[in-house]
Amino acid sequence: MGSFSIWHWLIVLVIVLLVFGTKKLKNMGSDLGSAVKGFKDGIKDGANGTGAADAATPPAQQVTTNKANDPNTVDVEAKTKS
After folding, report:
1. Whole-number Å distance between alpha carbons of 65 and 21
2. Is the pTM of this model over 0.70?
3. Distance CA 78, CA 82 (A)
4. What's the gap between Cα 34 and its chain centre?
5. Percent of residues, the chain, with pLDDT higher than 70
């Protein structure tokens, strides 16, 4: 009652082929395969060392709480409206 026989699946396959056509199904299959391959390559690259290389290099610009010794630096907290 709950399972489908082989004939049900063959009828569904024939209907899908009639609706989409073999060329469109072939293109969808190759697109799906290339997406999965790209995903696996991305996971492999991420696990092999891009994270370790990023951790070794410091960020390009970092905001710190230390005050700079540059005379052109303005301390915003020191300025008040009068």
Report:
1. 64
2. no
3. 12
4. 15
5. 56
